[in-house]
Amino acid sequence: MTNEKNTITAFHCWRRNGELKVKPRPFKWHIPKRLRGQIQQGDIVLVESQDKKKPVLVIDVSREELEETGRYYKRVIKMLDQVDKRDEQPATSVRV
Length: 96
Known about the structure:
The structure is a single chain. The chain is mainly β. The protein contains one helix and five strands. Strands 2-1-4-3-5 form a five-stranded antiparallel beta sheet, with no helix packed on it. The longest helix is centred in the C-terminal third of the chain and has 4 residues.
């Protein structure tokens, strides 16, 4: 058994008039093995949601044992914007 973090909790987000807007209801997604260890709190990632690809703002990265919880989540598709590569830019410049 590994301690690798495999689940994100995130808010849906979008850009309106140059500002990053967030819908404050958390949802969870599965992190595929190729992206584990790369995603951290504050990142914006592309996920599967309602048969579409949508950007979300990560608020937590955790480990969940699927065998114990019995829950299965849709997956993260790719990274869009990483917190450590933004150089502390204001939220208005985040591409979504």
